[in-house]
Amino acid sequence: MSHGAGGKASRRLVEGLFAPLLLSSGSSERLADAAHIEIGGATVAFTTDSFVVRPLRFPGGSIGELAVNGTVNDLAVSGAKAHSMVVTFVLEEGLASSVLEAEVRAMSDALKRAGVTMVGGDTKVVERGKADGMYITTAGIGSPIPGVHVDARTVRPGDKVLLSGPIGDHGITILLARADLDLEADLYSDTRSVLPMIEALAAQAAPGIRWMRDPTRGGLATSLNELARDCGLSVELNEEEIPMRDEVRGACELLGLDPLHIANEGQFVAIVSPEFADIALNAIQLTDGGDEARIIGQIRNEPANTVVVNTRYGGTRIVDMLVGDPLPRIC
Amino acid sequence: MSHGAGGKASRRLVEGLFAPLLLSSGSSERLADAAHIEIGGATVAFTTDSFVVRPLRFPGGSIGELAVNGTVNDLAVSGAKAHSMVVTFVLEEGLASSVLEAEVRAMSDALKRAGVTMVGGDTKVVERGKADGMYITTAGIGSPIPGVHVDARTVRPGDKVLLSGPIGDHGITILLARADLDLEADLYSDTRSVLPMIEALAAQAAPGIRWMRDPTRGGLATSLNELARDCGLSVELNEEEIPMRDEVRGACELLGLDPLHIANEGQFVAIVSPEFADIALNAIQLTDGGDEARIIGQIRNEPANTVVVNTRYGGTRIVDMLVGDPLPRIC
Q: B83: which chain A residues are within 8 Å (Cβ-Cβ)?
């Protein structure tokens, strides 16, 4: 299961098998969010994701909404505005048509909110016991947001780490929604399009944007470890600046989970040059849903390839990528 | 299961639920193969398909090869040349890594043969019993082939029906590969890219091409019934002109299946204006793998919205779309 968790085992699978055999560049970096390619004289961003979240519906969202927002967000953090999408459903025989219809409606609503057009799709049905209700795959294409260039190699010491809002809401919501845990909390998935925040950021601070990512599976720690590795620098986080709801903190303490490893579906992290940091933060905070954005850290030279957290008690700790899978099928 | 079979129930699902809620146009026609959209000043064709074929490997191909060729072909019959692709895997926990690697290699080989670049992807892992080995979804973008316009509304009485080669190889191969049938034949899936044939056709006869489709799930009869409905005319086939291997004919007779309903994964059917019909046939026949192409019928005014077959015994029969699902998970 850990090969699908978005952490170390996933990265090994990508680097060891998929990238060398499948990717033109032979580089795993291109698998990150969305590829920007030249076609017919235009630059088009292109991405895909499969969604296998369990349960299909959870507080604050559902698989259909997730499938639209996830692809919009992958495009957004690559510096592109989603334009069109295609979708496939793998349905388990016997799935109630009302369940399918609810997800199609959820997708329709999310598409409208994101201003994206669905242009095609496919449906397959497999026998009972060969899927879990439904799996949805979306692929999206988009156009580059002018002036935005996302590239880990442009990150420099002194750059700031900007986070769009509280972490862990999605992962902990899913955890609590699973019948096998006897915990309750007033918590909702953060699933949403981050495009409005990124467009506001770009409008005010495009030249200052070095790198962006939506910290989904594997959480903030995994995204930032990938960045640290790709830029060869250190990402230093200030724990007490990282926004987090009490419910998330409490559940993580109870269950022995690191909130930095918990999945998010409506947040993004950006590395911004120091002179643009305040403008960038302000731009996001002034956008609907961005008021909890914070600068949570900075880039250092040392220790290279590493994410370090300055704890609230004055110490420091190194945070690795996610290892293993504390919570399968989170998205 | 019939909702995934590509026939009448699939069409009802698309027309009743997906098209009105999800598709911008509200029209199911756009779901057919690939959408052609304007983005960044370019026209880009965009398509997706999920693959759930069982078994994963079969004589002549495997799920990975199918996933690449299927998307290349969907673009090709829409009048576009595949440029880039993205892929997602839904893997069942416990799948042998050698099985996954074999499919990644099969995809890599098919990509090279098709001259297409893989630019990104995603992997999800689900628990044992929640998938069947692996499901693969590909999405592809491509550029229009100059001068080719595929539109059922341009089809006219007198147009010719051109088929690229023998029908039924893929479906019957899968049928025989299933352990539950005690039949054997020297038969192989026809999975391949049809792009070289379509490029040759376009080079010689682009102005004569009215419509194209790859008759996969639901077979030639379903594709041509969709055409008959979309153009409001009659598609008349001459049974003895339809190329078919003896093994396919024999298996269909034995099992009570209509070969016109059997899936193909390496053929296409084109409607060509009469003055270009011979040039078009010749162009395909001179292409590698196209020597068995035939003109198999013509378009008539009546009976409208219907596919009629002139049988080898001098009679005629009406062939409907596939109803039900004689062979689930064919692709």
A: 37, 39
Nearest one of A198, A187, A218 to A148, comparing CA atoms: A198
From chain B, the residues in CB contact with A102 under 8 A are none
Do A4 and B124 make contact, defined as CB atoms within 8 angstroms?
Answer: yes
CA distance A87 to B134: 18
Measured in angstroms, the CA of A6 and the nearest CA of chain B are apart by 9
Q: Decide if B23 contacts A118 (C-beta within 8 A).
A: yes
Contact call for residues B277 and B156 (beta carbons, < 8 A): no
Report pLDDT digits (tens) over B3-29. 777 777 777 777 778 878 887 655 444
pLDDT band at A24 (very low <50, low <70, confident <90, very high): low
Q: Contact A162/A277 with Cβ under 8 angstroms?
A: yes
Q: What is the pLDDT of residues B310-325, one digit of tens each?
A: 998 899 999 998 887 7
Contact A165, A243 (CB under 8 A): yes
- SS3 sequence of A123-170: EEEECCCCCCCEEEEEEEEEEECCCCCCCHHHCCCCCEEEECCCCCHH
The residue assigned the tokens 């692929």 is A139
Distances from the Cα of B309 to the Cα of A121, B165, B246, B262, angstroms: 31, 18, 19, 16
Rounded to the nearest integer, the mean pLDDT of chain B is: 93
Kindly tell me the sign of the dihedral angle through the C-alpha atoms of A265, A271, A274, A280. negative
> What is the predicted ipTM?
0.94
H helix intervals, chain B: 8-13, 19-22, 63-77, 97-114, 169-177, 195-205, 219-231, 246-255, 277-285
Report, in angstroms and rounded to the nearest whole number, the Rg of chain B calculated over CA atoms: 19
pLDDT at B19: 79
Do residues A222 and A322 touch, judged by C-beta distance below 8 A?
yes
Enumerate residues 46 to 75 of chain B having a beta carbon within 8 A of any beta carbon in chain A. 46-52
As given in the structure block, the two tokens for residue B270 are 């084109």
Q: The whole model's pTM is what?
A: 0.95
Distances (CA, A) of A171 to A5, A103, A167, A260: 12, 20, 9, 11
The predicted-structure confidence for A95-124, as pLDDT tens digits, reads as follows: 999 999 999 999 999 999 999 999 999 999
CA–CA separation, B269 and B242 (whole Å): 11
Residue B215 · residue B7 · CB < 8 Å: no
Between β-strands B209-213 and A306-310, what pairing exists: parallel, antiparallel or unpaired?
unpaired
Q: Which residues pair with A237 in a beta bridge?
A: A297, A309
Q: What part of A 78-117 touches B (C-beta under 8 Å)?
A: 83-84, 86-91, 93, 97, 100-101, 104-105, 107-108, 111, 117
What are the phi and psi torsion angles at B92 (to 5°)? -85, 130
Strand partners, A111: none
Going by their DSSP bridges, the two strands B134-144 and B80-92 should be labelled as antiparallel
Interval A239-282: pLDDT, tens: 999 999 999 999 999 989 999 999 999 999 999 999 999 999 99
Cβ distance A267 to A207 under 8 Å? no
Burial of B26 (0-12, 13-18, 19+ CB in 10 A): exposed
Alpha-carbon distance B12 to nearest alpha carbon in chain A (angstroms) = 12
Supply A258's token pair: 């690191």
- Name the β-bridge partners of B131: none
